[in-house]
Amino acid sequence: MTTYDSSSRMGVGSLPAPPFWICVLLGLVMIGAGILVLGDIMLVTLISTVFIGWVAIIAGAFEVIHAFWTKGWGGFVWQVLLGILYMAFGIVLVGQPVASALILTYILGMVLLISGFVRILLGISHWRQAGWIMLLSGIFGVLAGLVILTGFPMTGLWVLGFVLGVDLISHGIGWLAYAWLPTTRTASSA
C-alpha cells in the first residue's frame, strides 16, 4: 500500500508514466476521431458552434445564479450583466450556427494574425534566446490568419472543423510518440 505525505508537493515530473497500452490506445482513438472530424468538417464546424453556444448559455446562467448567491461580495450588477451577455452570445450561436461559425472563424483569423505579428516582434527582440522559434511560430500564425481572412467567408464553413481534426490527429501522434519513448517504457514498467 502506498501512502502519501500531504506536507510535500508532488510535481508533474514525479508522477508515474501511464502504461504503454493506454498511451497507444489514446493515440489511436485521437487519430481516429481526427480522421472522422476531417471526413465532414462543415458538419463538425456547425456542431462546434452549437456546442460553444450551449456552453456559453450554461456558463452565463451560472454567472447570474452566482451573482444572487454572493450578493454581498460586491459587483452584483456586473456579474448579472456578464451572465446575461454570455447567455445572449450563446443564444446567437445556437440560433444561427452558420452565421455564428462565420463570426467565430473571422475572430479566429484576426486573433491568429495579431498574435502572429506579436510573436514575430518578440522573436526578433529575443533573437539571442532562441527567438527564431518564436519568429517561426509568428510567421505561421500570420500565414494562418491571412489564409482564413483572405478566403473569408468561405473559410468560415470549414476552418473550425479542420483545425479540430488536425489538432486531434496531432494530439494522437503525440501520444503514440510518447508511448514509444524509451524512457517512458522503462519508467512505466518499473
From TrEMBL:
Highest taxon in the source lineage: Bacteria
InterPro entries in the record: Acid_resist_chaperone_HdeD, DUF308_memb
Record keywords, A-Z: Membrane, Transmembrane, Transmembrane helix
Transmembrane segment boundaries: 20-39, 46-69, 75-94, 101-124, 130-150, 157-181
Transmembrane as UniProt keyword: yes
One family name in Pfam for this protein: DUF308
Protein name: Uncharacterized membrane protein HdeD (DUF308 family)
Species for this entry: Bradyrhizobium algeriense
